[in-house]
């Protein structure tokens, strides 16, 4: 491992950070639910997991909070989110470091995740004065028709380990300015950062003054607690981020009780490198997209189609980058690739690489890097696998740094393969040919929720609506008009005439 010497006492530093961030010791020191750091593999806390009955009571209390919060004027609600943004700015370094400890992200990515939280707060504050409805022309004289957007209720948030804090903020900042209360079930792999976010929000709430009790709460627990949130009748919207497997369970359960779902599920993202591509630019974008966050982003680049005319120029350079990339402890080194989250992730990676070999794949990298005394931490060299065709494991998301590279000769065949997987999250094309890029962005092009030109698949900004199609779940959160999912729309028609004309010329004259 690069600069592998580990002198940081991860457990001790976690305790110090939690104290600085204002998390009460009792919440994480003597409970029944262990929490581990992927950096060292050691247990760093024991949290108290909530019982299903208590979780139900928390949701009921959030419903009461909603009834008060919905009548607070939206710009005033925005003030709370502005204060949250201020608190996040003040605690960016500590929270970013805790993200690195709990999720294994390198320092700049841990800090980047907190920056994303700050950005969405700024966005939501502006939004709190822009929850616009339309005024619509009516066919009836002396009438006015308009739309009003009202708060919805308790918004349930279920999040994945790999964006342990940003996903909460994308949802919570919008939900709060839209007049909703929030109940969050974070990943059981990253509960400490959730407690830290809650403590930060509570400081903002104290400064705000007058917010209802229980406006935003956290449920520490596993999937069974997530199910309580999904099934509770007083939760009209659940925004669930995680695997497609999770979405296949959560989606139908929500549909059964006619609740709304924002599903942000797995991705199997691809890029196409065309003959005219700027290869230097493509190389950097591919390296970050495929190896960054140790391949544990929903938007990680997993499949690459390279035109035969540039394959021999690009792929050897890529392989060199794979061989030389620094893998190491994100707390002590400037390594670009940190650890996998746990053993299950490593097992999944090994299994996928073995399956790819069976399909004729030729593998560069993929080896585990172990350090004495740190046998429970899973550091790996990212793997680049040259495949004869798109088959076997290439069709599935393996949540690890594996990039499958395939050669193509015909653009339309590459585009067809690009779309021939279950997921539909992110995509990109590297080309200077306007016909290719426009076709890629057109109705016949990429079928993903995110389609980029000359940038990679990952690293989205909060200003755009984020999400994907097909088995990625179809949800949108964060920027653009994603806020609408967090409100209910009422169409109002007001008659200021002295007559009662019916629409479509219908007559119904009673004696
Ligand atoms: P996961 O599906 O194992 O768990 C995600 C969350 O769902 C956890 O909080 C878990 O407790 C909860 N959960 C699981 N089953 C549930 C159920 N039946 N009912 C209620 N809650 C349930 O995912 P993970 O391993 O933490 O994260 C990795 C996955 O998340 C990858 O597939 C990745 O692509 C995806 N992801 C998607 C996005 C996106 O925006 N599309 C963002 C981040 C991660």
From TrEMBL:
The active site is at 264. Keywords: NAD, Oxidoreductase. CDD domains: ALDH_F7_AASADH (cd07130). It comes from the Bacteria. Residues 31-489 form the Aldehyde dehydrogenase domain. GO terms for molecular function: aldehyde dehydrogenase (NAD+) activity. This is aldehyde dehydrogenase (NAD(+)). It comes from Mesorhizobium zhangyense.
